[in-house]
Amino acid sequence: MALLSQAILDEFDERGYVVVRELLDPETDLKPLVDEYTDLVDSLSEKWFAEGKLPSTYSELPFGERVTQLLKEGQPIFQEFDISLPPGLTKETPIHTGEAVLALLRHPQVLDAVECFIGPEITCNPVQHVRIKPPERLIPESMLNGLVLFTDWHQDVGVVNASADATEMLSVWIAVTDATPENGCMVFIPGSHKGDIALHCSTQTSREPQGKSGFIRRMVIPKAHRGPNEPVPVPINSGDAILFHRRTIHRSLPNKSDGLRWSLDLRYNPTGQPCGRDWLPGFVARSRARPETELTDARVWTQLWEDTKEDLGENGTPAFFRWKEGDPRCA
Predict the structure, then answer these.
(1) Measured distance CA(17)–CA(8) in Å, rounded
(2) What is the DSSP string of 246-281?
(3) pTM of the predicted protein model
(4) Whose CA is closest to 157, among 83, 242, 246, 77?
(5) How far is CA 171 from CA 118, 164, 316, in A?
(6) What's the gap between Cα 291 and its chain centre?
(7) Strand partners, 132
(8) CA–CA dist 159, 106 (Å, integer)
(9) Residue-level pLDDT at 143
(10) Using an 8 Å Cβ cutoff, are 49 and 156 in contact?
């Protein structure tokens, strides 16, 4: 694609986020990812059925209904889908490092857009996620998790450690399925990136909108610290992307629809700058100066994560978040 226009760059500077329409083609660019995850669900369903954990493989169901059914059956499939590791990981914690995912992380269209903001020496930050969110009303209490529920108000730089405060981290949110207000699109506070890193408070919140008994712990910016501007929902179509500043305050809405909302929540930073969780393995996605340093093999990427699990499983996981429970400013 051509480099982004000056108008898009100016909009980013003013609002802290910008929509790039048709960054990827749903058929040629996203279908390999969908196929890879369909194969993953096939494999996991067959494995769990053989182990007696499922009464059926549910192979007759469409992808979205099948994922929801696996959650209902008590299988934590959300971590099987993810491309990063959670706090409290073990050597057995699953992570997905397939070829189609790596191809999207390194996609020339994505990196061309990223280069406009952070330059040509680009590291793929390991603090990133694949989020496949079923309708929230269908998720059982035992499966409540931030990967499948709405996200609350935060800044991406606020949920990593202070080593990355000055890192020119760019977030790239790509819609695999259409993202609408009904199924959980992103919401941004325009201009909030012009402020400092906001206070994030540790809190327990129930799922929305049902307010059932299940709770998960979240880091959330209190209303008094979100600034004066009104939030703006940003619906986008499959293949569109939202690029936003590391200090832009944002959240996602709950999925109140009847289908999945699927997105890639990616981050990039200039090579050599701290990623905010330096014990996780980032990699060079593009280097104009030293192209031989780029990671191109999914097997190598997989091994980086396996080595990380081995190390952290033995030695423990550092604190993922800088904010402490009981901060008096959160009272």
Answers:
(1) 9
(2) TT--EEE----SSS-EEEEEEEEEETTS--S-TTS-
(3) 0.94
(4) 246
(5) 11, 14, 28
(6) 26
(7) 262
(8) 24
(9) 82
(10) no
Can you list the positions of beta strands (E) in 86-240? Answer: 121-124, 129-133, 170-175, 186-188, 201-206, 215-220, 232-234
Q: Token pair of 156, please?
A: 């991406």
Q: What is the pLDDT of residues 24-36, one digit of tens each?
A: 999 999 999 999 9
CA distance 91 to 127: 18
* pLDDT tens-digit readout, 114-140: 999 999 999 999 999 999 999 999 888
277, 283, 281, 282: which is closest to 317 by C-alpha?
A: 277
**Which backbone phi and psi does 149 adopt, to 5 degrees?**
-100, 175
H-only helix segments in the chain: 6-15, 31-50, 63-72, 77-81, 99-105, 108-118, 298-315
Res 1: pLDDT? 46
User: What does the pLDDT average to over 144-153?
Assistant: 86
User: What is the model's pLDDT at position 331?
Assistant: 73
Bond before 209 cis per omega within 30 degrees: yes
The set of residues, in sequence order, having a beta carbon less than 8 Å from that of 218 and lying 6+ positions away, is: 146, 151, 152, 202, 203, 204, 205
Place of tokens 């905010």: 276
What the block records as the tokens of 228 is: 């004066």
Which residues, 6 or more positions from 38, have their beta carbon under 8 angstroms from its beta carbon? 63
Measured over the CA atoms of residue 283, residue 9, residue 166 and residue 175, the dihedral's sign is negative
